[in-house]
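Open question from group meeting: does this chain pack into something compact, or does most of it stay loose? Before anyone orders reagents, we agreed to write out a predicted structure and look at it together. Recording both the input and the output here so the notebook holds the full record.
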Amino acid sequence: MQVLITRSREDAEPLARLLDELGISSMTEPLLDIIFHSGPEINLKGTQALLMTSANGVRAFSRRSRNRELPLFAVGDATAREAAKLGFAKIHSASGDVDALAKRVKDIVDPGGGSLLHAAGSRVAGDLAGVLAAAGYEYRREVLYDAKKATAFGTKTIAALESGSLNGVLFYSPRTAEAFVSLAKQAGIGEMVKALVAFCLSPAVGEKASDFEWRKVEIATLPEQEALINLLQKYM
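Structure tokens returned:
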């Protein structure tokens, strides 16, 4: 079995190693190029906790702040692991999506204790700000990076699609699924995609992938990497 990984390079490479250990062959085709914003140290005055909806948010914040002591709320376990790797001390994982993250915050954090800082990209999914504001929290979003879409598939990916050596494509975000569909239409390879399975991290990802005709669109039971890999292993 061989699958295409569409994650950004920093996340694609460790995922490829993990899949290899499980006996799953993979190729990488990063469909988003992460561009971190440079700038001064982030002002954390009055901030009681950090909100992270991606591993890239953790990386971006870490480039602009030396603070590792504030409580950090991560949307999922992969984001939490990246926070631990970068030295954060107080990590709470929602092990889910943006709604799960908001619930985790509301279960633990006092709305009157200070603001919540969301280290984010220029585009965000869900309405974390609205949900938290409705619950009385002071929410502040810091845009610390951009995710720039790829403009074309690489030659190796095109060759793999043409040869029929790929069995599926992994999608971790709505934007990567959207980018793949757009580039596949641009390259005129719709017939080749019909033989592939789209493995999607969440229903929102699956919705974007479904703009194309696949052999099948599979959605993980939980928005976590372990659940997605479990899906892959059913096809081995």
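Observations to bring back to the group:
The two ends are 6 Å apart (CA to CA).
The chain has two domains: 2-31+152-233, 35-147.
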